[in-house]
Every structure is written in structure tokens, then in C-alpha cells.
Amino acid sequence: MEDKKTNIERVTYMDGMILVADNVNQLPVDERAFRPDMFIVLICNQGRLQTDINGRQYLIEAGDMLLCNSFHTLTDALHSIDFSCSIYCFPGTSSAEAVHVNEKVLRDFFFANDNPVIHLTEEQRGLFRTYKILIGKKLEDGASRYSEQSMSGLHKAILYDILAVIDKRKHETAEATNTHDEEMYPSVKSDKVKRFLMLLAEDDSRHHTVEYFASQLYVTPKYLSVICKHETGKTPSAWIRERLIEKIRYYLLNTSLSAKEIAHRVDMPNSSFFGKFVKQHFGCTPMEYRNKQMNSEP
After folding, report:
1. Inter-CA distances, 114 with 9, 50, 62, 165, 185, Å
2. What sign does the dihedral 195-196-201-204 (CA atoms) show?
3. Helix 210-217 / helix 191-202 crossing angle, nearest 10 deg
4. Residue 14 exposed, middle or buried by CB count within 10 Å (0-12, 13-18, 19+)
5. How far, CA to CA in Å, does 172 sit from each of 6, 118, 151?
6. d(CA 32, CA 204)
7. CA distance 90 to 19
8. Which residues of 263-280 are buried (b: 16+ CB within 10 A; e: fewer)?
9. How does DSSP classify residue 294?
10. How far apart are alpha carbons 13 and 277 in whole angstroms?
11. Residues 80-95: what's their mean pLDDT?
């Protein structure tokens, strides 16, 4: 594989709903680390892409779908010379409004969060190729009286078909392991838990306490902890910590900020506290982690 500086060659933007990279053979990043602030779906058309996601290595080949959200940090992305892909980007707010976020959708979110690479069938690949053609056709036709409603419907249809792919793969995994998907990922029925996860996704890792999020939801920290643990399998503290770790990983690998400056960005009391947190979760000091990753072989 060849390490290459990357950028989008051609993009199409539709009313703040969808950003589509058409006939792209490069990723939409030129940094060593990339942390999306939106929901990104990449479908590999040919070649290979290798990347680390939250410290775990993945290989994406032709026919694979890569799902990324703001809980993910991608590092050390390398791709083959013949790599090409199609990319769909969905702003988080508009996507949450487009689909009805219920317990099934959240279970699919949990699965995709833990399993960001899914292989598509030829029928599924054909469906998304059709969507890309349809988007291009609608843009060629130009604006009309019902353009906004039409694009909104298309946005929703693509998102639901992405969810259908995730759900199918989740069921296949459950069958392979002789479990029910409800056992893999508990049902999230509480509106408070749904809202907590949305608030956390929108937060810029500046709020670290369960108390803060509980206050936004008008519940006690204890109540939020109990229902969140029951319905997601993780405490609010664990969700907050995971997001904070990935934000720190992004800053260490993607900026030249000092430990003190990063500590300030993520609202930690001082660089000493920040250093202890990084050593606990990364196994070394902030600068050791940065130097180790920057000096590693591509």
C-alpha cells in the first residue's frame, strides 16, 4: 500500500442534508488522524484501505462499507494505488431528525459503533450505486417547487437502507454466535437515554460529569446511571470516558498542541491530571504516545 496525501476531488452538496463524493479515489482527509463530526459512509469500489479505528486495525476491500461517526477516530490510513470509493456524509442533527430514533435504531448504532466495517452483497452495492445516479440526476434537473421535500425523502431513504444493511449484518452475527441481538445490545426504550447519547454525540468532550448531562435531562445522576447501564450495558461515565479518549487521541495525532493546551481544550483541570489520564488509558505519557505514533512505520 502507498501512503498518500488525500482530498476530495469532486463533491456534491445538497441542502445541508448529504455530502456526496462522486468517483473519488481518495479519502476526505489529509491528516494523520481523522475524527468525523458527522455520520460518514464509505463504500470501497476497488483496491484496499487500511486504517486504525479507535486503536483497532481494519482492512477495507472492494465491496466493504465503512461506517464512521463522532465516536470514532481514524488514524494511519493507507490505501492502495488503485483505491476508489464512494462517500456519503450526513450531518448528525439532520440525520437524527430524518429517522425515527427508537430502540431498534439505537441497537443498530451500537453494533455499527463496535463493527464499523460491513461487507455488502452485490444487490446492496447496486442499490447504493443507484442512489448516487439518482442524486446526480436530480441535481442536473435543478431546483423545483418540491426540491426540498424530494431531497428530504431521498436523504431519509438512504439512511434507512444503511440501517437495513447494519441490521441484517447484526442478525447474521447473532445467528453465528447463537445469540439474540437483544442480548448483544439491550433495547433502549428510555427517551432520557436516547437524549443522553445524542447530547454526548453533539458535545465537544468538554463535559465529563454525569451530573452535567443529568441536569440537561432534568433527572438525577443516579437515575441516569441506572437506566443507562440497564439499557446500553454501559454507565454514562463509560460512554463519556470513551468519547473523551478519542477526542484526546485526535488532538495528540492531528495537532501540535502541547499537553497543557489539550488539557484546556478538553476542560481538564491541569496538565498533570491530563497526563495521568492519558497514561492510564494509553499506557504512556501524552508526548510519548504522540512521538511513538508519529515515528511508527507507515
Report:
1. 30, 17, 21, 15, 11
2. positive
3. 120
4. middle
5. 34, 11, 32
6. 20
7. 7
8. bebbebeebeebbebbee
9. H
10. 40
11. 77
The grid coordinates listed for 138 are 436530480
φ/ψ bin of 55: left (φ > 0), alpha (ψ from -120 to 50), beta (otherwise): left
pLDDT at 48 over 80: yes
The CA distances from residue 111 to 30, 80, 92, 116, 163, in Å, are 28, 28, 18, 8, 11
pTM: 0.68
Residue 174 gets the label, from left (phi > 0), alpha (psi -120 to 50) or beta, of alpha
Looking at every residue in the chain, the average pLDDT score rounds to 79
Give dist(CA 120, CA 8) in Å, integer: 23
List % helix, strand, coil for the chain (3-state, nearest 5). 50, 20, 30
Give yes or no for a contact between 98 and 26, defined as CB atoms under 8 angstroms apart: no
Higher-scoring residue by pLDDT: 246, 188: 246
- Per the model's pLDDT, the better-predicted residue between 205 and 132 turns out to be 132
Closest CA to 43 of 155, 103, 106, 120: 120
Which stretch, 130-134, 137-141, 179-183, 234-238, has highest mean pLDDT?
Answer: 234-238
Contacts 24+ apart (CB under 8 A), 70-73: 70/35, 70/36, 70/37, 70/38, 70/201, 70/243, 71/113, 71/201, 71/242, 71/243, 71/246, 72/35, 72/36, 72/113, 72/116, 72/246, 73/33, 73/34, 73/35, 73/246, 73/249, 73/250, 73/253
> In whole angstroms, what is the distance from residue 37 CA to residue 201 CA?
9
Which sign does the torsion angle of CA 267, 271, 273, 279 carry? positive
- Dist CA 50 CA 22 (whole Å): 21
